[in-house]
Amino acid sequence: MNTLDKTNLIRKKILSWGDENIHDLPWRENQTPYSVLVSEFMLHRTNSKQVVPIYNSFINAYPTLKTFSKEKNDRYILDISGEARRRKEIQAAIANTMDPNYPRQYYYSLIDLAHTICKPHKPNCEVCPLQISCIFHGFNYRS
Questions:
Q1: Distance from chain centroid for Cα 68
Q2: Of the residues 32, 47, 83, 125, which has the fewest C-beta atoms closer than 10 A?
Q3: What topology does CATH give the domain 3-127?
Q4: How many CA atoms lie within 13 Å of 120's alpha carbon, on the beta-carbon side?
Q5: Tens-digit pLDDT profile for residues 12-45
Q6: What is the residue extent of each domain of the chain?
Q7: Where are the alpha helices (DSSP H) in 70-141?
Q8: pTM of the predicted model, to two decimals?
Q9: Which of 118, 137, 101, 125 is nearest to 12 (CA)?
Q10: How many other CB atoms are there within 10 angstroms of residue 24's CB atom?
Q11: SS3 call for 87
């Protein structure tokens, strides 16, 4: 199987998995650059289940960047240091397999697959649609 065939197979498997398993999250419904920015900052080091109520509360209180910019206290301080290099590496890896016909669906499917199956200490390789092509499949991850 050539590289293009492998890439297409991976795309198909990820999208197929996503059709059945993609998570319903509020920041995926009404995407604006502002809502994406807010969700990215909140998800930086926090589990999505914990972010949902905070995100909803924040967006209700500050639905636009303009309303947020009028906030007078220092309650919200956002830290983005050190993320640029890691983000570029991740973006390059995703770009190599990104489905040009369904980029948003592919991206969400890939994120949710990684969150659901590729857990750091106990990956669930047995149900992963990519186990045949995954270089980590079969590793012993016990701490």
A1: 24
A2: 47
A3: Endonuclease Iii, domain 2 (1.10.1670)
A4: 1
A5: 999 999 999 998 888 888 788 888 888 888 887 7
A6: 3-127
A7: 84-97, 103-116
A8: 0.65
A9: 101
A10: 7
A11: helix
